[in-house]
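Handout, section 4.2: multi-component inputs.
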Amino acid sequence: MKYRQNGKFKRTILEADLNVASFFFLLGLISAKENIACCSFPCQNGGECLTIDVDDYKCDCYGLKFYGKNCEIPTWSQQFYEWLEPDLESVYLMATKYQYIWNIFNSLINSLTTINDRIRQSKNPQKFIKQSSNNQSLYSLILPPVPKNCPTPLGVAGFKNLPEISRVAELFKRSEFKPEPMGFNLLFATFAEHFSYMFFKTSIENGPDFTWSSQSVDLSNIYGREIYDQNILRSFNQGKLKSQIIDGEEWPPLLEKAPVKMYWPNSVPTKYRFAMGHKYFSVHPGHLMWSTLWLRQHNRLCDVLTQSYPNWGDEQLYQTSRKALNAIMSKMVLEEWLTMLSPYKLNNKLRNKNFQYQRRIFLEYKLFSHWHGLIPDHLSINNTIYTTKNFFFNPEILFKHGLPNFIESLIKQSAGRVGHHNYNPATIYVVVDAIIQGRNLRLQSYSNYCRHFGIKPPKTFLELTGDYAVAKELEELYEDVESIELFVGVMCSRREGRSLFNILQLEFGVASVLYAINSNPIASKKWWQPSTFGGEEVFNIIEKSTFQRFICNNIKGRCPRFSFKVPWWNSDYEKSFYMAEWAANRKRHDNLWFDS
Amino acid sequence: MKYRQNGKFKRTILEADLNVASFFFLLGLISAKENIACCSFPCQNGGECLTIDVDDYKCDCYGLKFYGKNCEIPTWSQQFYEWLEPDLESVYLMATKYQYIWNIFNSLINSLTTINDRIRQSKNPQKFIKQSSNNQSLYSLILPPVPKNCPTPLGVAGFKNLPEISRVAELFKRSEFKPEPMGFNLLFATFAEHFSYMFFKTSIENGPDFTWSSQSVDLSNIYGREIYDQNILRSFNQGKLKSQIIDGEEWPPLLEKAPVKMYWPNSVPTKYRFAMGHKYFSVHPGHLMWSTLWLRQHNRLCDVLTQSYPNWGDEQLYQTSRKALNAIMSKMVLEEWLTMLSPYKLNNKLRNKNFQYQRRIFLEYKLFSHWHGLIPDHLSINNTIYTTKNFFFNPEILFKHGLPNFIESLIKQSAGRVGHHNYNPATIYVVVDAIIQGRNLRLQSYSNYCRHFGIKPPKTFLELTGDYAVAKELEELYEDVESIELFVGVMCSRREGRSLFNILQLEFGVASVLYAINSNPIASKKWWQPSTFGGEEVFNIIEKSTFQRFICNNIKGRCPRFSFKVPWWNSDYEKSFYMAEWAANRKRHDNLWFDS
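Output:
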């Protein structure tokens, strides 16, 4: 992990000493003593900052391959290593452009090497946890928080106070809908949300550091939170989950038949109040759709197993089907979802290694995952137009149009671009929340996170955004490019050509999902064998599972052609989209004065 | 992991088929269909057995380097590997005898390689967990349980019913006290118990598969079970734990001042009812002693930190001291405790790698850890003799004699030998409990566990025990050496020369403790640096910590010379002990008829 130093950064160190002196003078010895000298983050290459005296600090370079006052001098071996290692941007270029090289690479090299590297990237074991204990309900941090009592909220850069949240929120409000440039559709958006509800379970009572349940990728969003809820959702008959038949099709049970904790507003009629594994799956019919598909798949697996093993009891059937469903999920997410999200042209194959990680979610990852820009202003389901507001808490839509039409409509409609100026007014509160969380957690600046991940931090606002107008807005809010908050920086930064996200978000996000999948041992070598899933038959189902099969096998009638991208998407579409946007951008801002 | 096949084992496969046929005839299709063909454990080398039909099975060799009906044929690469790899017994001999080789080895090779191998031994990730879910309160199993409806309780070997528990318990009752042959003393015994209470927390309500709290090595036995209890034990002043001063010395607080859940019998006066981090630490004054030492060390660390950082709040002081205490524990346990227990002459140094494992305790490890043979019939504290019964629930002893005398007395007194015919009548219930648990969990036979660990299973009872009389007793109980229960086999087996345990218990136990320590990230490279512990000062305390310093720094007055072995122990003592025992054994049994 290299920290690339630039002129600006050096300047901030000098500034820090001046600022410290004046700050100390103002506030007096006691409040100023703590860690003031560390506010400029002088320690590089992962060194940790300790205050010795008011204006002196010490960088802890223990165990690093760097030494010196700021851990800035590499050892000989490190110099050699750096000389060998390409920087992240070159890797990115190599990994995304030259498909044919990667085809050879994939067939030769165990791709787990890369995956393990990614996991190492996300820095296992996590260090910055609020408590020293083994409390598994705590999130962790990638970088330590900004010290208290610093001259400015982000250390030494920027204004004395962060901009008002309402002003920052303006950056995110949608004036016109901007479609997702890679062509991701609403099926993608609903799956993203459905999947991430599995592990993002921030406890409102205990604060943004705490979760209210497991942080693992274990389909707990289908099976229920704890044993108590899980048992309510089980039928205890042939291993199956409780369900009901509506018009000849299987659906989750009604809340009155399986009284788990679910948030259904009073406006929803009792006959549409379904019981699902996650209390917030009431939010929109997309959750009900995915939950139903998983439920049907589970119960179908039970049927397959019952036929092979008529003597198995309910418990064995339930546990085996559950393992198999986890395997199906792990296969689909790794091989289709993640390969699609990641620009790296690697086969994400696990299953040839034994591993087991203890997982803690990084709070930064949680912050990045506010993708509500995906949500459009209107949804067209089977040619009926719903406003976003009407779509929420409205499971009736699913029954009115039927599953095939519903899924097809989601496939046909483009999601929104994740980024600035593209949040539906109904979701702006999410942005406000994310910003408040970031401030309460005293997260370091966007630039410091870039340094941590070996990405060149932007020198100017324009370099960050690639867009004149947004750069201007940001400059008014933050003054110094070093003082941009993490969430704002990630959302306002320009994207590399073919990517939903900016490079930091991508690098870290893909590593996080891989790491999450690894926290479930189902995909490790020792578990991935027929006997785990009751024999060859179910194992074959798992090995062959794709999103297309998953959907087709679990709906009745016509099966829509599955895709997470709008059907007319192809590389020409993407290219033309970029060209048009670039031209519009030039046109709009050419006559604006901008000091870059 | 090799399964060494012997004649006996082949025979049981043939027998199985006969037995299956008759059993099927007796019980009828339904109850017999399940897995009967697997009762003889025909699958080798880690293959898993699946029933195809009543008398047919299939071994799942997926992902193994073996193929064939029983996964018995090694691939070419495996044959080459086997040819290279020395067997466990040779490794054991090499690792225990030639100290000078290991001195070179230790200085050259990163000893973590070996440690990682050990962890791999314990087969991460664990596969045999009762539930497929991520329920962290579940223990796991090394080998799958014996299938239901088998001809005999252990598959196909032995009598139709296991011997009555009361008869098995007779094997463990002490007639005369046998001291521990390696010279381990009562301080060792109390620490062993104190340490293992940290993670063995079987839930009585939920059953022997479940724990009531974390399975990690995280000093939760000092700090309390969950956040709620932890907060009761904290003073919220300068990071310290609650305490009281008695005769100028610091002790844990009274239960009325810190009302956590503790089991104090009514007979104990209120002024001796202390509040500690583990509810069973009331059992004997040894726990109170160790708890007090940890508590004093924690509070002393807070003082050191407060001096360096007068501005730190209570929370930061508490969490940092807690991390430091965990580091001290990890250092002492790895470098002194484990090196002493293990016959392998390796330095058990971690801290040069990043790692993180999710930990589940193996139920077999829990079963092995019933070391109550260590407990003598009488304890001499400062020349006062206490019976074991009087020692229990009697914290007054500590105050009557004072900590230095108490510790010295424990050092001087030999613990008992862990094994057959050496359990104090007051602890026989523990044996009964362990046997019942093993039976309820349907654990496989001792011989099958030997095969799993690549140890030659004993062919005769004499080969197992190395003692005529015990072999005779065992034969009467079990008939077939293949049908000995795990716990009984481990406790009745002969020991290698210099060892507290038999080779199976040792191999697995040391791996388990290492794995446990690894579940706490404190000892990984990224955490092990001064800044984690608030700077050089505390880091030096950690780096220098030994049991001797830990005791001396935390008691007032004369400091006893620390040892986990009785002071007069040396290799000559051990040798003479063995010779004497061997001679006595010969003499006692020479005139007994025995068919070997």
